[in-house]
Specification:
This protein has about 475 residues and is an alpha/beta fold. It has three domains: about 5-105, Rossmann fold (3-Layer(aba) Sandwich), CATH 3.40.50; about 120-340, TIM Barrel; about 365-445, no CATH class. The protein has helices at about 20-35, 55-60, 80-85, 100-105, 135-145, 165-175, 185-195, 205-210, 225-240, 255-270, 280-285, 290-305, 320-340, 365-370, 400-410, 415-435; strands spanning about 10-15, 35-40, 70, 90, 120-125, 150-155, 175-180, 200, 215-220, 245, 275-280, 310, 380-385, 385-390, 395-400. It holds the Pfam family DUF6513.
Length: about 475
Protein backbone atom coordinates (compact mmCIF):
# COMPACT_ATOMS: atom_id res chain seq x y z
CA UNK A 1 0.00 0.00 0.00
CA UNK A 2 1.35 3.40 -0.95
CA UNK A 3 2.00 5.93 1.79
CA UNK A 4 0.55 8.79 -0.28
CA UNK A 5 -2.75 10.27 0.90
CA UNK A 6 -5.69 9.12 -1.19
CA UNK A 7 -6.11 12.49 -2.91
CA UNK A 8 -2.57 12.20 -4.33
CA UNK A 9 -2.93 8.65 -5.64
CA UNK A 10 -3.66 7.30 -9.10
CA UNK A 11 -5.68 4.09 -8.95
CA UNK A 12 -6.18 1.45 -11.61
CA UNK A 13 -9.48 -0.40 -11.48
CA UNK A 14 -9.73 -3.74 -13.31
CA UNK A 15 -13.04 -5.17 -14.56
CA UNK A 16 -14.76 -7.13 -17.32
CA UNK A 17 -16.46 -5.55 -20.34
CA UNK A 18 -19.99 -6.04 -19.04
CA UNK A 19 -19.34 -4.09 -15.84
CA UNK A 20 -17.19 -1.33 -17.35
CA UNK A 21 -19.95 1.28 -17.73
CA UNK A 22 -21.28 0.76 -14.21
CA UNK A 23 -17.76 0.79 -12.78
CA UNK A 24 -16.97 4.10 -14.47
CA UNK A 25 -20.04 5.68 -12.88
CA UNK A 26 -19.16 4.48 -9.39
CA UNK A 27 -15.46 5.33 -9.65
CA UNK A 28 -16.20 8.80 -11.03
CA UNK A 29 -18.33 9.50 -7.97
CA UNK A 30 -15.60 8.20 -5.63
CA UNK A 31 -12.94 10.24 -7.41
CA UNK A 32 -15.03 13.37 -7.02
CA UNK A 33 -15.44 12.80 -3.29
CA UNK A 34 -11.98 11.47 -2.40
CA UNK A 35 -9.87 13.35 -4.95
CA UNK A 36 -7.87 10.45 -6.44
CA UNK A 37 -7.08 10.08 -10.15
CA UNK A 38 -7.97 6.84 -11.83
CA UNK A 39 -7.76 4.60 -14.87
CA UNK A 40 -9.90 1.59 -15.79
CA UNK A 41 -8.55 -1.53 -17.45
CA UNK A 42 -10.58 -4.21 -19.23
CA UNK A 43 -8.15 -7.06 -19.99
CA UNK A 44 -10.10 -8.61 -22.86
CA UNK A 45 -12.70 -10.55 -20.92
CA UNK A 46 -16.47 -10.18 -20.62
CA UNK A 47 -17.11 -11.07 -16.97
CA UNK A 48 -14.93 -10.13 -13.99
CA UNK A 49 -15.70 -13.46 -12.30
CA UNK A 50 -13.49 -15.17 -14.93
CA UNK A 51 -10.38 -13.16 -14.13
CA UNK A 52 -7.35 -15.06 -12.86
CA UNK A 53 -3.89 -13.98 -11.79
CA UNK A 54 -2.27 -15.89 -14.66
CA UNK A 55 -4.50 -14.17 -17.21
CA UNK A 56 -3.80 -10.72 -15.73
CA UNK A 57 -0.04 -11.29 -15.86
CA UNK A 58 -0.35 -11.73 -19.62
CA UNK A 59 -3.05 -9.19 -20.51
CA UNK A 60 -2.87 -6.37 -17.97
CA UNK A 61 -0.79 -3.27 -18.49
CA UNK A 62 0.10 -1.07 -15.51
CA UNK A 63 1.50 2.40 -16.17
CA UNK A 64 4.33 3.82 -14.05
CA UNK A 65 2.00 6.51 -12.69
CA UNK A 66 -0.29 3.95 -11.03
CA UNK A 67 -0.04 3.80 -7.22
CA UNK A 68 -2.52 0.99 -6.52
CA UNK A 69 -4.39 -1.61 -8.54
CA UNK A 70 -7.91 -2.53 -7.37
CA UNK A 71 -9.06 -5.95 -8.59
CA UNK A 72 -12.59 -7.36 -8.48
CA UNK A 73 -13.13 -9.56 -5.45
CA UNK A 74 -13.76 -12.52 -7.76
CA UNK A 75 -10.17 -12.70 -9.07
CA UNK A 76 -8.67 -16.15 -8.51
CA UNK A 77 -5.06 -16.90 -7.66
CA UNK A 78 -2.32 -15.39 -5.52
CA UNK A 79 -2.17 -11.62 -6.13
CA UNK A 80 1.35 -11.57 -4.66
CA UNK A 81 2.43 -12.88 -8.07
CA UNK A 82 0.98 -9.74 -9.66
CA UNK A 83 2.74 -7.49 -7.17
CA UNK A 84 6.05 -9.15 -7.92
CA UNK A 85 5.41 -9.13 -11.67
CA UNK A 86 4.36 -5.46 -11.92
CA UNK A 87 6.16 -4.13 -8.84
CA UNK A 88 2.95 -2.40 -7.75
CA UNK A 89 0.56 -2.95 -4.82
CA UNK A 90 -2.51 -5.00 -5.77
CA UNK A 91 -5.62 -5.56 -3.67
CA UNK A 92 -8.90 -7.38 -4.03
CA UNK A 93 -11.83 -5.03 -3.79
CA UNK A 94 -15.40 -6.14 -3.13
CA UNK A 95 -17.11 -8.75 -5.28
CA UNK A 96 -19.89 -6.28 -6.09
CA UNK A 97 -18.66 -3.01 -7.62
CA UNK A 98 -21.53 -1.16 -5.93
CA UNK A 99 -19.82 -1.93 -2.60
CA UNK A 100 -16.78 0.17 -3.59
CA UNK A 101 -18.03 3.26 -1.69
CA UNK A 102 -18.11 1.20 1.50
CA UNK A 103 -14.71 -0.30 0.64
CA UNK A 104 -13.29 3.23 0.49
CA UNK A 105 -14.99 4.27 3.70
CA UNK A 106 -18.00 5.93 2.11
CA UNK A 107 -21.58 5.02 1.43
CA UNK A 108 -22.33 3.47 4.78
CA UNK A 109 -22.89 5.11 8.13
CA UNK A 110 -20.44 4.36 10.89
CA UNK A 111 -21.83 1.46 12.87
CA UNK A 112 -23.74 2.71 15.89
CA UNK A 113 -22.49 1.67 19.31
CA UNK A 114 -25.48 -0.16 20.77
CA UNK A 115 -24.05 -0.67 24.23
CA UNK A 116 -26.78 1.22 26.14
CA UNK A 117 -30.30 0.17 26.99
CA UNK A 118 -32.93 0.98 29.59
CA UNK A 119 -35.06 -2.19 29.74
CA UNK A 120 -34.23 -5.07 32.08
CA UNK A 121 -34.90 -8.59 30.77
CA UNK A 122 -36.33 -11.15 33.18
CA UNK A 123 -35.98 -14.54 31.51
CA UNK A 124 -38.46 -17.08 32.85
CA UNK A 125 -37.66 -20.78 32.97
CA UNK A 126 -41.14 -22.21 32.54
CA UNK A 127 -42.07 -25.03 34.97
CA UNK A 128 -38.59 -24.90 36.46
CA UNK A 129 -39.78 -26.86 39.50
CA UNK A 130 -40.53 -29.90 37.31
CA UNK A 131 -37.11 -29.99 35.64
CA UNK A 132 -33.83 -31.56 36.79
CA UNK A 133 -31.73 -29.00 38.66
CA UNK A 134 -28.83 -29.32 36.21
CA UNK A 135 -31.11 -28.52 33.28
CA UNK A 136 -32.50 -25.46 35.05
CA UNK A 137 -29.02 -24.12 35.77
CA UNK A 138 -27.82 -24.79 32.22
CA UNK A 139 -30.84 -23.01 30.75
CA UNK A 140 -30.35 -20.08 33.12
CA UNK A 141 -26.71 -19.71 32.14
CA UNK A 142 -27.68 -19.74 28.46
CA UNK A 143 -30.37 -17.12 29.03
CA UNK A 144 -27.92 -14.90 30.90
CA UNK A 145 -25.40 -15.22 28.07
CA UNK A 146 -28.11 -14.14 25.60
CA UNK A 147 -28.98 -11.03 27.62
CA UNK A 148 -31.24 -11.95 30.53
CA UNK A 149 -30.50 -9.76 33.55
CA UNK A 150 -32.66 -11.78 35.96
CA UNK A 151 -33.62 -15.46 35.85
CA UNK A 152 -37.22 -16.15 36.87
CA UNK A 153 -37.99 -19.49 38.49
CA UNK A 154 -41.36 -20.41 37.02
CA UNK A 155 -43.41 -22.55 39.38
CA UNK A 156 -46.53 -24.63 38.65
CA UNK A 157 -49.86 -23.24 39.95
CA UNK A 158 -51.53 -25.64 42.37
CA UNK A 159 -48.27 -27.43 43.24
CA UNK A 160 -45.82 -26.81 46.05
CA UNK A 161 -42.22 -27.69 45.23
CA UNK A 162 -39.99 -28.29 48.29
CA UNK A 163 -36.87 -27.79 46.13
CA UNK A 164 -37.48 -24.12 45.26
CA UNK A 165 -34.87 -22.94 47.76
CA UNK A 166 -32.35 -25.39 46.30
CA UNK A 167 -33.04 -24.10 42.77
CA UNK A 168 -32.54 -20.47 43.77
CA UNK A 169 -29.39 -21.33 45.72
CA UNK A 170 -27.94 -23.10 42.66
CA UNK A 171 -28.70 -20.12 40.43
CA UNK A 172 -27.24 -17.66 42.92
CA UNK A 173 -24.10 -19.84 43.03
CA UNK A 174 -23.72 -19.01 39.31
CA UNK A 175 -23.82 -15.31 40.27
CA UNK A 176 -27.26 -14.95 38.65
CA UNK A 177 -29.96 -12.61 39.87
CA UNK A 178 -33.19 -14.49 40.54
CA UNK A 179 -36.92 -13.84 40.77
CA UNK A 180 -39.67 -16.24 41.86
CA UNK A 181 -42.93 -16.65 39.93
CA UNK A 182 -45.41 -18.16 42.37
CA UNK A 183 -48.39 -17.35 44.58
CA UNK A 184 -47.58 -20.27 46.87
CA UNK A 185 -46.36 -18.89 50.21
CA UNK A 186 -44.06 -21.82 50.97
CA UNK A 187 -42.33 -21.51 47.59
CA UNK A 188 -42.03 -17.73 47.74
CA UNK A 189 -40.61 -17.64 51.27
CA UNK A 190 -38.09 -20.38 50.45
CA UNK A 191 -37.00 -18.49 47.32
CA UNK A 192 -36.60 -15.22 49.20
CA UNK A 193 -34.61 -16.92 51.97
CA UNK A 194 -32.30 -18.34 49.25
CA UNK A 195 -31.70 -14.96 47.64
CA UNK A 196 -34.52 -14.19 45.21
CA UNK A 197 -34.79 -10.42 44.76
CA UNK A 198 -38.18 -10.09 43.06
CA UNK A 199 -41.57 -11.74 43.58
CA UNK A 200 -43.99 -12.28 40.71
CA UNK A 201 -46.64 -11.34 41.59
CA UNK A 202 -48.76 -9.49 44.16
CA UNK A 203 -52.54 -9.02 44.04
CA UNK A 204 -55.41 -9.16 46.52
CA UNK A 205 -54.89 -12.89 47.08
CA UNK A 206 -51.46 -12.60 48.71
CA UNK A 207 -50.97 -8.96 49.63
CA UNK A 208 -51.43 -9.65 53.33
CA UNK A 209 -48.26 -11.78 53.60
CA UNK A 210 -46.11 -11.00 50.56
CA UNK A 211 -45.59 -7.39 51.63
CA UNK A 212 -44.06 -8.58 54.92
CA UNK A 213 -41.06 -10.24 53.26
CA UNK A 214 -39.14 -7.04 52.51
CA UNK A 215 -38.61 -8.07 48.88
CA UNK A 216 -39.68 -6.18 45.77
CA UNK A 217 -42.97 -7.34 44.28
CA UNK A 218 -44.72 -7.00 40.93
CA UNK A 219 -48.18 -5.57 41.53
CA UNK A 220 -50.85 -6.80 39.12
CA UNK A 221 -54.62 -6.23 38.99
CA UNK A 222 -56.92 -8.95 40.32
CA UNK A 223 -58.05 -9.44 36.72
CA UNK A 224 -56.50 -7.75 33.67
CA UNK A 225 -59.48 -5.47 33.01
CA UNK A 226 -59.95 -4.49 36.68
CA UNK A 227 -58.02 -1.23 36.58
CA UNK A 228 -59.53 -0.05 39.85
CA UNK A 229 -58.07 -3.05 41.71
CA UNK A 230 -54.61 -2.09 40.45
CA UNK A 231 -55.04 1.42 41.82
CA UNK A 232 -56.14 0.07 45.24
CA UNK A 233 -53.26 -2.42 45.34
CA UNK A 234 -50.70 0.25 44.48
CA UNK A 235 -51.98 2.42 47.31
CA UNK A 236 -51.89 -0.43 49.81
CA UNK A 237 -48.43 -1.72 48.83
CA UNK A 238 -46.96 1.78 48.82
CA UNK A 239 -48.27 2.33 52.34
CA UNK A 240 -46.34 -0.72 53.59
CA UNK A 241 -43.05 0.61 52.25
CA UNK A 242 -42.55 -2.52 50.13
CA UNK A 243 -40.59 -1.80 46.94
CA UNK A 244 -42.71 -2.60 43.89
CA UNK A 245 -43.22 -2.32 40.16
CA UNK A 246 -46.56 -2.58 38.39
CA UNK A 247 -47.73 -4.71 35.47
CA UNK A 248 -51.17 -3.89 34.02
CA UNK A 249 -50.86 -7.24 32.10
CA UNK A 250 -50.64 -7.40 28.32
CA UNK A 251 -53.19 -9.85 26.94
CA UNK A 252 -52.84 -12.12 23.90
CA UNK A 253 -54.11 -11.11 20.49
CA UNK A 254 -57.77 -12.05 20.29
CA UNK A 255 -58.15 -11.74 24.07
CA UNK A 256 -58.08 -7.97 24.47
CA UNK A 257 -54.56 -7.16 23.24
CA UNK A 258 -55.18 -3.56 22.09
CA UNK A 259 -57.21 -2.66 25.16
CA UNK A 260 -54.42 -3.99 27.37
CA UNK A 261 -51.85 -1.82 25.60
CA UNK A 262 -54.04 1.17 26.33
CA UNK A 263 -54.00 0.25 30.02
CA UNK A 264 -50.21 0.56 30.05
CA UNK A 265 -50.49 4.08 28.65
CA UNK A 266 -53.18 5.01 31.17
CA UNK A 267 -51.09 3.58 34.02
CA UNK A 268 -48.00 5.49 32.91
CA UNK A 269 -49.95 8.76 32.86
CA UNK A 270 -51.42 8.02 36.27
CA UNK A 271 -48.10 6.87 37.78
CA UNK A 272 -45.33 8.71 35.89
CA UNK A 273 -42.61 7.81 38.40
CA UNK A 274 -43.53 4.21 39.25
CA UNK A 275 -41.48 1.34 37.82
CA UNK A 276 -43.38 -0.83 35.34
CA UNK A 277 -43.03 -4.30 33.87
CA UNK A 278 -44.59 -6.05 30.85
CA UNK A 279 -44.94 -9.79 30.45
CA UNK A 280 -44.20 -9.93 26.72
CA UNK A 281 -44.42 -13.72 26.58
CA UNK A 282 -48.22 -13.41 26.54
CA UNK A 283 -47.83 -12.10 23.00
CA UNK A 284 -44.72 -13.82 21.64
CA UNK A 285 -45.55 -17.31 22.92
CA UNK A 286 -49.23 -17.10 21.97
CA UNK A 287 -48.86 -15.68 18.45
CA UNK A 288 -47.79 -18.13 15.76
CA UNK A 289 -45.29 -15.89 14.03
CA UNK A 290 -41.51 -15.45 14.10
CA UNK A 291 -40.92 -13.57 17.33
CA UNK A 292 -38.17 -11.11 16.38
CA UNK A 293 -40.48 -8.48 14.87
CA UNK A 294 -42.97 -8.86 17.71
CA UNK A 295 -40.19 -8.38 20.25
CA UNK A 296 -39.01 -5.28 18.41
CA UNK A 297 -42.44 -3.63 18.53
CA UNK A 298 -42.98 -4.52 22.19
CA UNK A 299 -39.51 -3.19 23.03
CA UNK A 300 -40.37 0.06 21.23
CA UNK A 301 -43.52 0.47 23.28
CA UNK A 302 -41.65 -0.24 26.52
CA UNK A 303 -38.91 2.25 25.63
CA UNK A 304 -41.33 5.03 24.74
CA UNK A 305 -43.50 4.46 27.83
CA UNK A 306 -40.58 4.05 30.21
CA UNK A 307 -41.43 0.42 31.04
CA UNK A 308 -38.16 -0.61 32.62
CA UNK A 309 -38.49 -4.40 32.67
CA UNK A 310 -40.01 -7.24 30.69
CA UNK A 311 -40.72 -10.86 31.54
CA UNK A 312 -40.13 -13.19 28.62
CA UNK A 313 -40.07 -16.89 27.95
CA UNK A 314 -38.66 -18.89 25.04
CA UNK A 315 -40.52 -22.17 25.19
CA UNK A 316 -42.33 -22.65 21.90
CA UNK A 317 -40.09 -23.10 18.86
CA UNK A 318 -40.86 -19.80 17.11
CA UNK A 319 -39.76 -18.00 20.28
CA UNK A 320 -36.68 -20.03 21.09
CA UNK A 321 -34.32 -17.05 20.75
CA UNK A 322 -36.60 -14.46 22.35
CA UNK A 323 -34.15 -13.38 25.06
CA UNK A 324 -31.41 -12.61 22.54
CA UNK A 325 -33.95 -10.96 20.22
CA UNK A 326 -35.22 -8.69 22.96
CA UNK A 327 -31.66 -7.88 23.98
CA UNK A 328 -30.95 -6.69 20.43
CA UNK A 329 -34.29 -4.89 20.25
CA UNK A 330 -33.87 -3.01 23.54
CA UNK A 331 -30.51 -1.65 22.39
CA UNK A 332 -31.85 -0.63 19.01
CA UNK A 333 -34.96 1.12 20.33
CA UNK A 334 -32.95 2.90 23.02
CA UNK A 335 -30.61 4.25 20.33
CA UNK A 336 -33.55 5.27 18.13
CA UNK A 337 -35.50 7.03 20.87
CA UNK A 338 -32.47 8.67 22.47
CA UNK A 339 -31.14 9.99 19.16
CA UNK A 340 -34.55 10.67 17.58
CA UNK A 341 -33.85 8.52 14.53
CA UNK A 342 -35.84 5.74 12.92
CA UNK A 343 -34.40 2.26 13.62
CA UNK A 344 -33.33 1.65 10.03
CA UNK A 345 -29.84 0.95 8.66
CA UNK A 346 -28.45 0.95 12.21
CA UNK A 347 -28.19 -2.76 13.00
CA UNK A 348 -29.38 -5.75 10.98
CA UNK A 349 -29.23 -8.48 13.60
CA UNK A 350 -33.03 -8.79 13.78
CA UNK A 351 -33.36 -9.21 10.01
CA UNK A 352 -33.17 -12.98 10.06
CA UNK A 353 -35.63 -14.41 7.54
CA UNK A 354 -34.75 -12.15 4.62
CA UNK A 355 -31.70 -10.02 3.80
CA UNK A 356 -31.37 -6.26 4.12
CA UNK A 357 -30.46 -5.90 0.47
CA UNK A 358 -30.51 -8.00 -2.65
CA UNK A 359 -28.12 -7.52 -5.56
CA UNK A 360 -28.66 -9.89 -8.40
CA UNK A 361 -26.90 -10.64 -11.67
CA UNK A 362 -28.58 -9.55 -14.90
CA UNK A 363 -29.59 -12.09 -17.54
CA UNK A 364 -27.04 -10.50 -19.86
CA UNK A 365 -24.24 -11.00 -17.34
CA UNK A 366 -25.20 -14.60 -16.59
CA UNK A 367 -25.50 -15.52 -20.26
CA UNK A 368 -22.16 -13.90 -21.04
CA UNK A 369 -20.51 -15.70 -18.14
CA UNK A 370 -21.94 -19.05 -19.25
CA UNK A 371 -20.78 -18.48 -22.83
CA UNK A 372 -17.26 -17.65 -21.68
CA UNK A 373 -16.70 -20.62 -19.36
CA UNK A 374 -13.95 -22.98 -20.48
CA UNK A 375 -13.81 -25.43 -17.56
CA UNK A 376 -16.13 -28.06 -16.09
CA UNK A 377 -16.43 -26.44 -12.65
CA UNK A 378 -20.04 -25.59 -11.86
CA UNK A 379 -21.19 -22.07 -11.03
CA UNK A 380 -24.52 -21.63 -9.24
CA UNK A 381 -26.65 -18.48 -9.04
CA UNK A 382 -30.02 -17.78 -7.41
CA UNK A 383 -31.87 -14.95 -9.14
CA UNK A 384 -35.46 -13.74 -9.43
CA UNK A 385 -35.48 -15.27 -12.90
CA UNK A 386 -34.70 -18.70 -11.44
CA UNK A 387 -31.83 -20.92 -10.42
CA UNK A 388 -28.82 -21.02 -12.74
CA UNK A 389 -26.35 -23.88 -13.00
CA UNK A 390 -23.56 -23.57 -15.56
CA UNK A 391 -20.19 -24.83 -16.71
CA UNK A 392 -18.40 -25.19 -20.03
CA UNK A 393 -20.85 -27.92 -21.04
CA UNK A 394 -23.99 -25.85 -20.69
CA UNK A 395 -26.19 -23.35 -18.89
CA UNK A 396 -29.30 -24.72 -17.17
CA UNK A 397 -31.87 -22.48 -15.53
CA UNK A 398 -35.33 -22.84 -14.04
CA UNK A 399 -37.29 -23.14 -10.82
CA UNK A 400 -36.86 -26.87 -10.12
CA UNK A 401 -33.40 -27.87 -8.80
CA UNK A 402 -33.97 -31.59 -9.42
CA UNK A 403 -34.75 -30.89 -13.07
CA UNK A 404 -31.72 -28.63 -13.42
CA UNK A 405 -29.46 -31.25 -11.90
CA UNK A 406 -30.88 -34.01 -14.10
CA UNK A 407 -30.27 -31.89 -17.21
CA UNK A 408 -26.74 -31.03 -16.07
CA UNK A 409 -26.03 -34.69 -15.33
CA UNK A 410 -26.88 -35.70 -18.88
CA UNK A 411 -24.28 -33.24 -20.16
CA UNK A 412 -21.78 -34.19 -17.43
CA UNK A 413 -22.16 -37.97 -17.00
CA UNK A 414 -18.92 -38.40 -15.07
CA UNK A 415 -19.94 -36.49 -11.92
CA UNK A 416 -18.84 -38.57 -8.92
CA UNK A 417 -20.80 -39.03 -5.69
CA UNK A 418 -18.85 -36.41 -3.77
CA UNK A 419 -19.36 -33.78 -6.45
CA UNK A 420 -23.04 -34.70 -6.73
CA UNK A 421 -23.45 -34.23 -2.97
CA UNK A 422 -21.76 -30.84 -3.15
CA UNK A 423 -23.99 -29.70 -6.02
CA UNK A 424 -27.10 -30.92 -4.24
CA UNK A 425 -26.13 -29.08 -1.08
CA UNK A 426 -25.36 -25.84 -2.91
CA UNK A 427 -28.51 -26.07 -5.05
CA UNK A 428 -30.59 -26.55 -1.89
CA UNK A 429 -29.02 -23.45 -0.34
CA UNK A 430 -29.59 -21.50 -3.55
CA UNK A 431 -33.25 -22.55 -3.67
CA UNK A 432 -33.71 -21.59 -0.01
CA UNK A 433 -32.10 -18.19 -0.58
CA UNK A 434 -34.31 -17.52 -3.58
CA UNK A 435 -37.44 -18.58 -1.71
CA UNK A 436 -36.67 -16.42 1.35
CA UNK A 437 -35.29 -13.37 -0.43
CA UNK A 438 -31.67 -13.76 0.64
CA UNK A 439 -28.44 -13.18 -1.24
CA UNK A 440 -26.79 -16.41 -2.34
CA UNK A 441 -23.09 -16.67 -3.04
CA UNK A 442 -21.69 -20.06 -3.91
CA UNK A 443 -19.57 -21.60 -1.13
CA UNK A 444 -20.51 -18.80 1.30
CA UNK A 445 -22.94 -19.14 4.18
CA UNK A 446 -26.36 -17.53 4.10
CA UNK A 447 -26.86 -14.64 6.51
CA UNK A 448 -29.43 -15.22 9.25
CA UNK A 449 -28.74 -12.19 11.45
CA UNK A 450 -28.93 -12.84 15.15
CA UNK A 451 -30.16 -16.42 14.64
CA UNK A 452 -26.93 -17.31 12.87
CA UNK A 453 -24.80 -16.24 15.84
CA UNK A 454 -26.53 -18.33 18.51
CA UNK A 455 -25.83 -21.92 19.38
CA UNK A 456 -26.70 -23.28 22.80
CA UNK A 457 -29.65 -20.99 23.45
CA UNK A 458 -31.06 -21.79 20.03
CA UNK A 459 -31.28 -25.50 20.67
CA UNK A 460 -34.64 -26.96 19.79
CA UNK A 461 -37.03 -27.12 22.73
CA UNK A 462 -40.23 -29.08 23.13
CA UNK A 463 -43.44 -27.14 22.73
CA UNK A 464 -45.45 -26.60 25.89
Amino acid sequence: MTSKPINQQTLLFVTGRLAETSLREVVAMLSGRLGFRYEIAVPGIQVAALLHVSLLKNRLGVADAIDRVILPGWVQGDIVELEQHFNKPFERGPKDLHDLPEYFGLGKKQRATLDKYSIEIIGEINHATRQPLGDVVAEAVRMAADGADVIDVGCVPGETCPQVGEIVTALRAENLRVSIDSFDRTEVEAAVDAGAELILSCNQSNIDWVTKLGTEVVVIPNTPADVDSLDRLIETVAATGTPFRIDPIVEPIGMGFTASLERYMVARRAYPDVAMMMGVGNVTELTEVDSSGVNMLLAAMCEELGIQSVLTTQVINWCRTSVAEFDAARRLVHHAVTNQVVPKHIDSSLVMLRDVRMRGQSEETLNALAAALTDANFRIFAEQSGLHLMNSHGHWQGDAPFELFANALRANPNIDAGHAFYLGYEMARAEMARMLGKEYRQDEGLGFGLAGTLSGSAAVRHEQ
